[in-house]
């Protein structure tokens, strides 16, 4: 039974197939017969030629070869078999006994050698051994192939992992790292092997990363994951963010090593880790975070972030007994640029303005875009109002030079309202609102300036809402009134001009003054409608008095900055005069210096057109604004109105009087008319008359009054003059 199984091939379990080759038919037959009897599958080949032919057609487990054969000898057959049938083992069965032949045969790949004449038992034993040996070799080759395939598979898995896979030795030096490190960070694995892993960590993360990764207290069951930044090669690109998971390799699974010379194979590895690139996720998170708290156009903090910082700053200031300032900044003329040059240019302007404003601030200050062309600024710790004044002036100055947008050069200014904590408000909302109110007072007075909030500006928000609603109704219900104040000639006492001043006959609150509602009208853009009504009514009243005989009577009207800035200002005004049939030469418009200086080129063009129509131009509140005297002789200006603060100072001391002296002298030099405002006393009148001031206006001659009262006064002076 045992004998029966021995002819079976150990690997396949079927009878082994043997090719017997000899040029001697007798020996061939006897060897074949012996093997067949032992159970093998035998094929006979008479001579080398037939042997090669047979090997070509069929495969064998074993060939038994005679060496010396005519023509193609045993060595030739061995060579052929080695190339055509490498799986076929060879046993040489030869009469040759020379050492050289035997050794030559073995060197050519023969697995054994049997000398003729052979002992049958010995021969069969040799065949069995060789077949067994061959099977072992085949098994080994199989294992090798499988190992190679398995290694290639694992290498493929590791290298095509979306993550960086690495192994570190006990000192933290990289002993294996996959190709992903090249794709993600630009390093070749070979150049990192042997280097400490911190070489690729962002400098700020080295300490944290080293501590966490080499911490032996974690394990593969409970690995440590942390976020680290890694350097890209050459640091041309920004560093990338990784989620790194690492743990020590358990000693029983340490990769086995024989000689330790192959540094790439990871045999010294004591730590294993993966690093997942989370840069895009981090950037998306950062962007979402940024977007929630910033304005994307200017990249400034938005309203929400500003309020948050202001709240913190208030808490801090309260605890430390400090002051802080909130500024509300509104761009002047932004709307005109946006409407005429388009939104793209408007956006570029906002960005350029932002850069200039930021240039005036310190690190701890917060400038935010509040919306549209409005900005807010927080100065978290100021010593007093002077600090805020200084910054406000710096901001205004920063915008005085024009902005270049493509081929356009544009001028924008800024109006600033300031609320100082704790005086101007205790809460975040109060401070912002009061800074806003103060800003509208600047707008109402000619823009391009700053003002601190003070209590008499205050209209609480509920009040403010109802006032706004009432103001809209006032226009519909015709509750606006125009009062007039005479402008009197200092030499003759005759009324030469009449200034129109708006009043609001409020149904519940009584008579309201411009200071009570003009900033709100400006803010709500009702000012345009309001100004139109005042102008129409004044033209109607004064027009009647002119027609009644006061043909040189001058009507002085105040114009709001937004009215003058309107692109169709001149056209609208002239149309209005024509509609009321009011002589242009009897109209004097009053504008402040700031309105002119805000946009000198545009405004001078408009004033020239108006002057060409005969309209006179007066500078109101002269001396309190820019006082850049340069524009005086470049513009068609007819009258300077000396501000009442200087007139008031006449009685207080020399300084005020000095300014009035200088203004009057200058007006004489430039051949301008001069009207002194706010004359209340005989002494002031006397002083001004002596100085050569042509006209005065003030309570000395009476407050602004309704048209009926003025009509009466006009009649009287007419009579007086007639009597003279
Ligand atoms: N203390 C004192 N004050 C005197 C004296 N004489 C006149 N006043 C006041 O001084 C202001 C003179 O007008 P303003 O400087 O043009 O200043 C005006 C002007 O800038 C603006 N305003 C008035 N009416 C209009 C209007 O219809 N349109 C526009 N855009 N602004 C107007 O409101 C401002 C304030 O107007 P009012 O309250 O009417 O105040 C008036 C007037 O009542 C005096 O002897 N002593």
Question: Could you explain the architecture of this structure?
Answer:
It is a single chain. The chain is of the alpha/beta class and 724 residues long. It folds into four domains: 2-142, Response regulator (Rossmann fold); 161-284, Beta-Lactamase; 296-458, Alpha-Beta Plaits (2-Layer Sandwich); 478-723, EAL domain (TIM Barrel). 45% of the residues lie in helices and 21% in strands. The protein is built from 26 helices and 26 strands. It has an eight-stranded mixed barrel with strand order 18-19-21-22-23-24-25-26, surrounded by six helices. The chain has a five-stranded parallel β-sheet with strand order 2-1-3-4-5, with helices on both faces. Helix 15 (428-444) packs across helix 17. The longest helix has 40 residues, at 120-159. The radius of gyration is 53 Å and the shape is rod-shaped. 36% of the residues are buried. It binds ligand C2E. Ligand C2E is lined by residues 485, 501-502, 513-515, 518, 531, 534, 558-560, 590, 620-621, 644, 677-680, 698-699, 704. Ligand C2E binds at residues 485, 501-502, 513-515, 518, 531, 534, 558-560, 590, 620-621, 644, 677-680, 698-699, 704.
List keywords for this structure.
724 residues; alpha/beta; Rossmann fold; Beta-Lactamase; Alpha-Beta Plaits; eight-stranded mixed beta barrel; five-stranded parallel β-sheet; 26 helices; 21% strand; binds ligand C2E; cyclic-guanylate-specific phosphodiesterase activity; Nucleotide_cyclase; PAS
